[in-house]
């Protein structure tokens, strides 16, 4: 214990030297012993990879994911589908021989969509493809029939605030990136209500569309009227913009039955491979088990759940028991704002010091390229060494972010190191939160590689002679 | 007249020499005078291109197409929308100063979709995205609730004929190419009815899907029960296949209000630039003005109509009057089997000898690469020389097919030479017959280039000293 602490301190001290002013690592100076120790896992990692890619686990992640999404379909927070899927994953994890399998209760939102439609009435009749946004209120049963004001930005809305009263505000914001454009989904209704809008529609947040609607969360601000809000397709947003620019008066009849019912009890699913030496120290691998209520939630985040389940099942199958515990968590109600993860953080706050490293896959399980890392400079040096072990699947790339993951951001955004799966996910936002989030977005070979990567990284970090260092980037700037 | 005939004969004789056994042209031996004559059009073509790409016509094709699709939306055969759009194009062609603008009446089908839905009832409830196929009958008002039989091919259906009785047959055929896979759309219902199926669903004919349904024509065979038929998405066809393979019993409730009303009168729209020397000889440029009843028909075939209108309007604007007549035709009811074109062929059968060359754009107006040609070997040599003039827009490629076009195949499939617009259309079938066929599939710069290409090729062929030769490939094999 003492020797390990000394090594850790030394490692951290050396690690600081590696961190340049602009936060780019130019050189890693890790103790040679540690580098050699990490390299010594190569045969084990090769065995994990072989088993997943060409051995007894080949195709299992995809096939199990397929069986799961075919059986349950989508799994929105509050739904019986989600709870059935949670029961299934608890049984499946037990059947895979994992340790301490159980659900941990947490209250989650219960928003239901109901039927919904948007029909352009003027200047001509056209049925618009739409999806209500999460948490939206509904319209009166007869709907809301109103003139439309199309704006490209919040700035334009504010400049035209005088024209918005009584109108349906349509945001035709450009797609810059998901992170930048999603503000229109999250806050569009509130901004429209503030200037007197009676409903708001956003252009779906995506770089590519085949008339594809993309739902997602939105939040009302306190003390602002809650108005119904939905997404329309990129194509229809463009159409409405052009019609407005051509001088037409546009009217839309919006009908939404959406409503929020009382919270219900859901569960985060937990399963472990208990550590042989320090079982109280935990490496977490995770994905979220809930999805939106469209498509089948195969990509978001069935893939993340099944490579996390697959990683533990594979290690168990190979009888690889690391020094520390590897815990898989399938978070519930991620889509409504990390609800399951926040509950977990609260319930496990006394355990936080033992969270050695957190991993989440929630940005696609396409062909892997490596890891996106959040944490300190020395840790990054270690991650780079571990990534070298992934050369057999050509997934050795690493990059850094201030925080990673969705659910695990609660921890990685607060100085606890972790990593996201990094894949060739340039089409992720084509499918995200749409009816096209089905098994067709997934690929068996990629899933095998991701399961291998997930198992390898978790195993090495859980088994190292030292705790993964917590020298936070945040403390150095 | 006589001198021209001699030249034509000579050209044809020389052309034959160019045609090798495997139908590939190795060398073109055209009279030097003719080659020089074609090359002499370079300044004129450059002027057409400059005007369309950077001059007074820049952006006009796109803007006019946008105005058109925004105003009318989709335009299915039999609809008032289509007739309003036809009226509009007649007025627009007149306003552009074109000659002999008029509509020519033809009887067209009047099929209407009505509301429609397909809900998987077992093994779990899922609403399937579908679009009824053209000419389909409807279901009884209460729908058809039946077990499903999924097959990958007609062969598999026949092998399992004993299991099909009373079932909804789902075709999960692979996408090989549009031409090869479309047989399942065209004949799937009849094949299913023959073995006792009560309805049929096909996997949409596309190489890529975001849960995108692709409608289209289908035909019932005489003396076979007409059963309701629709397309579902690639994703849902895959789902049904997997569920069947996993051993589930699948039941679907199909409701379709589709019905065929009596034929109505529509019109092919005709406009000309009358030839200065031989006005009776005609070069046709064309696209079809009808569309399916989903999306806005911007790509299929608004683009084809508007580059054909644009080509004539541009030539008129430049005061370029060729020796022969250039005629634009906007065919009606193409989607129901070239109905407008067949009517036109019958009404103009006495004029066929004067059809010098026919052009149609109905496979997308993406960035142009050149021309796809049907006709004789000498003609191909001439087309290759003309294509060289298109170097300023990098659209000099040519290739041959036994017939080209959709509507004009009536003629090009029967020895009358013609060409299709050839573009970078690898995504054409992503949008084809879907709600995503909107203006977003079109691009202003590409449309400018296509208008220039269309105008240039039509003008040169209409103005050459010789009639375009009719040495048909068909007569040589």
TrEMBL record, chains A, B:
Keyword line: Carboxypeptidase, Endoplasmic reticulum, Glycoprotein, Golgi apparatus, Hydrolase, Lysosome, Metal-binding, Metalloprotease, Protease, Secreted, Signal, Zinc, Zymogen
Subunit structure of this chain's protein: Homodimer. The monomeric form is inactive while the homodimer is active.
CDD domains according to UniProt: M28_Pgcp_like
Subcellular location: Endoplasmic reticulum; Golgi apparatus; Lysosome; Secreted
UniProt xrefs under Pfam families: Peptidase_M28
Xref: InterPro entries: CPQ, Peptidase_M28
UniProt-listed GO biological process terms: peptide catabolic process; proteolysis
GO molecular function terms noted in the UniProt entry: carboxypeptidase activity; metal ion binding; metallodipeptidase activity
Domain Peptidase M28, chain residue ranges per copy: 268-457
Signal peptide: 1-18
GO cellular component, one term: endoplasmic reticulum
Entry's family note: Belongs to the peptidase M28 family.
Name the record gives this protein: Carboxypeptidase Q
PANTHER family linked: CARBOXYPEPTIDASE Q, PROTEASE FAMILY M28 PLASMA GLUTAMATE CARBOXYPEPTIDASE-RELATED
Keyword Endoplasmic reticulum: yes
């Amino acid at each position: 214990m003492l020797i390990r602490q000394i090594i850790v301190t030394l490692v951290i001290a050396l690690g600081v030297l590696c961190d340049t002013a602009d936060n780019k690592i130019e050189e890693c100076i890790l103790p040679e012993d540690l580098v050699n120790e990490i390299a010594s896992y190569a045969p084990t990692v090769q065995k994990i990879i072989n088993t997943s890619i060409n051995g007894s686990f080949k195709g299992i992640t995809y096939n199990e994911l397929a069986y799961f999404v075919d059986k349950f379909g989508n799994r929105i927070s509050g739904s019986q589908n989600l709870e059935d899927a949670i029961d299934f994953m608890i049984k499946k994890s037990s059947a895979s021989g994992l340790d301490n399998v159980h659900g941990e209760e947490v209250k989650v939102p219960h928003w239901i969509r109901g039927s919904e439609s948007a029909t352009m009435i003027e200047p001509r009749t056209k049925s618009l493809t739409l999806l209500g946004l999460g948490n939206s209120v509904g319209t009166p049963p007869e709907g809301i029939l109103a003139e439309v004001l199309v704006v490209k930005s919040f700035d334009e809305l504010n400049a035209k605030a005088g024209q918005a009263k009584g109108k349906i505000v349509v945001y035709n914001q450009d797609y810059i990136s998901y992170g930048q454009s999603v503000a229109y989904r999250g806050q569009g209704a509130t901004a429209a209500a503030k200037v007197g809008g009676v409903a708001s529609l956003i252009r779906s947040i995506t770089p590519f569309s085949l008339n594809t609607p993309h739902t997602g969360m939105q939040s009302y601000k306190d003390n602002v009227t809650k108005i119904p809000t939905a997404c329309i397709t990129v194509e229809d947003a463009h159409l409405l913009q052009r019609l407005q620019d051509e001088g037409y008066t546009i009217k839309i009849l919006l009908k939404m039955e959406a409503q929020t019912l009382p919270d219900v009890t859901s569960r985060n699913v937990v399963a472990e491979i208990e550590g042989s030496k320090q079982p109280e120290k935990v490496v977490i691998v995770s994905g979220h088990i809930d999805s939106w209520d469209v498509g089948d939630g195969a990509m978001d985040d069935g893939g993340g759940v099944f490579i996390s389940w697959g990683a533990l099942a594979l290690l168990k199958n190979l009888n690889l028991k690391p020094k520390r515990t590897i815990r898989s968590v399938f978070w519930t109600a991620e889509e409504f704002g990390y609800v399951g993860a926040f509950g977990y953080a609260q319930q496990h706050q006394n355990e936080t010091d033992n969270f050695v490293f957190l991993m989440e896959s929630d940005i696609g399980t396409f062909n892997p390229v490596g890891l996106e890392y959040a944490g300190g400079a020395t840790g990054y040096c270690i991650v780079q060494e571990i990534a070298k072990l992934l050369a057999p699947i050509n997934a050795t790339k690493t990059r850094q972010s201030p925080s990673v993951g969705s659910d695990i951001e609660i921890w990685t955004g607060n100085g606890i190191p972790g990593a996201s799966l990094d894949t060739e996910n340039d089409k992720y936002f084509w499918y995200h939160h749409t009816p096209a989030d089905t098994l067709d977005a997934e690929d068996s070979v990629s899933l095998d590689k991701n399961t291998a990567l997930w198992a390898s990284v978790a195993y090495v970090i859980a088994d190292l002679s030292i705790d993964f260092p917590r020298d936070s980037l945040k403390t150095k700037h």
